[in-house]
Here is the input.
Amino acid sequence: MSHPAGAVNGVTPPLFEAWTVDLWVAVPLGLAVVVYVRGWRRLHRRLPQRFGVGRLAAFVGGMVAIGAALESPLHSLGAQLLQAHMVQHLLLMMVAPPLLWLGAPLLPMLSGLPIRLLRRWMGALIAWPPVTRSCRWLVRLPVAWVVFVASTWFWHSPPLYERALAAESWHYAQHACFLATALLFWWPVVQPWPSRPVVPPWGIVLYLILADLQNTVLSAWLVFAERVIYPSYAAVSHPWGISALNDQAAAGAIMWVPGSVAFLIPVAWMVGQLLSPKGSQTIGLRHQPLVDGGVRRGSTHQGEAS
Here is the structure.
């Protein structure tokens, strides 16, 4: 009988059998994709240039990233390898949120909901002034930056990280907090509909560079530490003979390099646009607002920012 790749003496390594189906994760993700696709199809027929296949691919890709972080073998390996846990965090904080916002999900999600639910509940909730004011305040650059950075450092402190490893409820809370604060952080960078540019592009560049700097400090702390920071990883056996200290250094390198790339790619794009001859007209053109289901003609980036 043939064995899966990587099997030894007929025994399948945990890596290949650790796929999980947690209904508390799978059902909400599946419902969100169904609602989005339903709304996207309607909008694609009316506004194919604004809601193209790229929007759909970005949103579904973001959902796949969340599923990979929470349902794949990474979730099980995270209890044995800090570097696997760090890959989970990168997917939830650096990959999924910008992809979701690039899908411009707000209008497709609303369009995909049943009309009765939209009119009775969601419409009233979205129009409720405390909700709109709170959302606008949370995505302001200083607020979004502080909340994102505070969440990152808070949950990577040894007491909280150890608690998340020891209790599944705290682990879920950690991941939910990472995803929620990252969604706030990436909103002003991607600026999905119906957001408006509220700061100059150079402000976003500084915002991202400062986020990368704090990420570098946290990463360096893990890479250059001479002791194991999270005792739980010293108390478990590590696959492939990796020592706890080397695993910790690898986790820091994963946070450092791919994490910096996630911040610096939009920085490079924005700087390139700003330095191009038409830079002042290029940035933000893709964020022209939708009014009553159509494109407001003649809007410009400068008009949106005013």
